[in-house]
Design a protein that fits this description.
Elements (H helix, E strand, L loop, with lengths): L2 E6 L4 H12 L6 E8 L2 E8 L2 H5 L2 H4 L5 E7 L14 E2 L5 E6 L5 H10 L12 H12 L7 H11 L5 E7 L6 E6 L4 E5 L2 E5 L11 E4 L5 E4 L4 E4 L5 E2 L4 E2 L15 H7 L1 H9 L18 H6 L2 E6 L1 H18 L3 E5 H4 L10 E7 L5 H12 L3 E6 L5 H5 L2 E4 L12 H20 L6 H22 L2 H10 L4 E6 L2 H17 L2 E6 L16 E6 L5 H13 L3 E6 L11 E3 L9 H18 L18
The chain binds 5-amino-5-deoxy-1-O-phosphono-D-mannitol.
């Protein structure tokens, strides 16, 4: 949930590190720090607050080293403060470490080190790492030419939990050592420059030749070389991946916020995600995953496991899988699934969805399911992310980097790819002549243009946002897939505008929640299923009768006179409708947050990828 950047090369490290931190701020933003080596000394500057504040410190501006590491933090152990910010130094100030992840046995290690004479300044779990490295460094044979890498490896062997670390040492000022376990870390290269990052967008403007470290990997970087070591400290060869994301994709590109840019990128994200998987008159192509007719005919259920918005994408596609594959689909929250004893076995297909591919709960759930004999498919947006290495098969969405904490284009891309997968399964099962399947395929190909149309209709949304931004509570209601979209709309509003909201199945209102409806309460209704129009309209009339003001998002033929605020969206098959109906509601949460003057991209208490429990 924090961000790491590192650099070693021929240029000044400071601007590259600060620039990288700014790109990573979405991963954590309560404090930041930087360390470089100058005249064989580590110069380390840390500050509570945003990267901008760190950048404005005079001492930071005068940093001249060509090697350095930097960090932006989202506090786990110890409150946000300059002392708790990274980099952390050992007692002798010889080693500087930035760390993402959580060291679960840090109390034990603190005790061990305290008994050995070390002391601690911060409340963090991280501070044990530089001191452990120092401890092992002193024990290395003087003649060992790989002292630093060896000491780092020995220190990491003592760590329980997750880590991605970068290490500077003033006694070996020409090197950076990096290592990872259960937390992402990549190295970018071009000619004599080497870049380190916890997330590819931080370094994409310098290079797209990226080495992705695996769990247990350690690397030693100098200006001339990189040496990779595996878990057993054996030297290994790695081949860089060529990342096709455009560096501009990690910029705002003229938009006021990343979230708004990403909302408007949805037609492209969906088109790219459909990619070569489907074209007119053809069958869906998922030949890269090895799922046979025999296997599919024998499964007894599908579990879709994820967190947050990704879980809402799972809820949105449950009906299409059930309709087309004819097995029960259970959508489960990863943090719950991992601590239950779910009724799963080799006849259960597991689909885990994670935009970042780094969500700790989702990865743990996938590992549990795999251990119980299930086949696992990961849906992710990030090439080489941790979940992709754990799953039996990976299917990528191609939404491009999603920077804003609030997930938007990942959600619609996830629903798109999963709907295609459901159709593919039906085709594998021999239902390719089914008329509904043909309709759905045609409709999927039309989703990018329908989303574009939905994005044009912003006037009512902006005006409604102005009316409601001071409210304390809101309700979203819908039936079927409209309820799935309502849940996502409610989450979006909560996370970026800090307004409490709940989502209900429209038919459930009268079983309790309607007691909360009184004069001027806001209820947003979604109506996209022709079969349910009358019932949904009645549910909304029930709340209007009790004084509620309403906003209705619909593609049905609903009488203008019934509602004051109607947002019209294009017609779309109800099984796919969340892809289109969520668009005005993403914009509603965005404009409400803007009216409140909030930082849309970096909402309080949240981080983009949740790599801790
Ligand atoms: O990277 P993931 O898709 O695994 O992330 C899951 C959730 O943490 C994420 O969707 C979260 O709910 C977003 N902030 C929602 O906008």
């Amino acid at each position: 949930m924090c961000g790491i950047v590192g650099y070693i090369g021929t240029h000044k490290a400071r601007p590259i590190l600060i620039n990288g931190l700014k790109k990573l701020e979405y991963r954590g933003y309560d404090s930041a720090g930087i360390a470089t080596i100058e005249n064989n000394n580590i110069v380390c500057i840390k500050n509570k607050g945003r990267v901008k504040e760190l950048e404005n410190i005079d001492k930071v501006n005068s940093l001249g080293g060509t090697i350095g590491i930097a960090h932006t933090r989202w506090a786990t152990h110890g409150k946000p403060s300059s002392t708790n910010a990274h980099p952390h130094l050992d007692n002798s100030k010889t080693f500087a470490v930035v760390h993402n992840g959580i060291i679960e046995n840090y109390s034990e290690l603190r005790k061990f080190l305290t008994d050995a004479g070390y002391s601690f300044l911060s409340q963090t779990d991280t501070e044990v790492i530089p001191n452990l490295i120092h401890y092992y460094y002193l024990k290395e044979d003087e003649k060992n030419t790989d002292k630093l890498a060896c000491a780092v490896r020995k220190a990491t062997l003592d760590l329980k939990g997750s880590y991605a670390i970068s290490v500077l040492c003033s006694l070996e000022p020409d090197k950076i050592i990096v290592a990872r376990k259960d937390s992402p870390l990549v190295i970018g290269v071009n000619d004599t420059e080497k870049y380190i990052a916890s997330d590819i967008p931080a370094i994409l403007e310098y290079t797209n030749n990226i080495y992705i470290l695996n769990d247990g990997d350690l690397a030693k970087l100098t200006t001339d070389s990189i040496t990779f070591y595996d878990n057993d400290f054996k030297i290994i060869t790695k081949v860089p991946e060529v990342i096709t994301w455009d560096a501009k994709a990690a910029d705002k590109n003229g938009y006021e916020d990343f979230m708004l840019k990403e909302v408007y990128e949805q037609p492209t994200a969906i088109r790219e995600t459909i990619g070569i998987r489907l074209s007119h008159g053809k069958k869906c192509d998922f030949s890269d995953i090895n799922i046979s007719k025999e296997y599919l005919s024998n499964i007894s259920s599908i579990y879709i496991i994820a967190c947050g918005t990704a879980m809402h994408a799972g809820l949105a596609v449950k009906p299409i899988f059930e309709r087309l594959v004819s097995v029960p689909v259970i959508v489960d929250i990863a943090s719950e699934f991992r601590y239950r004893e779910p009724l799963i076995n080799e006849k259960t297909l597991i689909i885990c969805i994670s935009q970042s591919g780094e969500t700790a709960d989702t990865i743990a759930a996938l590992k549990n399911a795999k251990a119980m004999g299930c086949k696992t498919i990961a849906i992710s947006n990030v090439i080489g992310s941790s979940i992709t290495r754990e799953a039996d098969f990976t299917i990528y969405t191609h939404a491009g980097p999603e920077i804003a904490v609030a997930s938007t284009k990942a959600y619609t891309s996830q629903i798109t790819i999963l709907s295609l997968l459901a159709i593919y399964f039906a085709e594998v099962l021999g239902l390719e002549e089914n008329e509904m399947l043909q309709n759905l395929k045609n409709e999927i190909l039309e989703l990018p243009s329908k989303v574009s149309i939905a994005l044009e209709n912003t006037d009512i949304i902006k005006a409604f946002a102005k009316r409601i931004y001071k409210e304390k509570d809101l309700f979203f209601i819908g039936r079927g897939t409209d309820y799935a979209a309502a849940l996502e709309a409610s989450l979006k509003l909560k996370e970026i505008s800090y307004i409490h909201s709940d989502a209900y199945q429209s038919g459930e209102l009268k079983h309790g929640p309607i007691a909360l409806i009184e004069d001027d309460v806001t209820v947003v209704g979604i109506i996209t299923d022709r079969r349910l129009v009358e019932k949904s309209v009645s549910n909304l009339q029930e709340v209007i009768t009790r004084g509620a003001k309403t906003l209705v998002v619909t593609n049905q033929n609903i009488d203008e006179k019934l509602f004051t605020n109607i947002v019209r969206i294009p017609q779309v098959h109800p099984l796919l409708s969340p892809v289109v109906s969520i668009i005005p509601l993403q914009l509603l949460s965005y404009y409400v947050a803007k009216e409140k003057g909030l930082d849309v991209d970096k909402p309080r208490n949240l981080a983009k990828s949740v790599t801790v429990e």
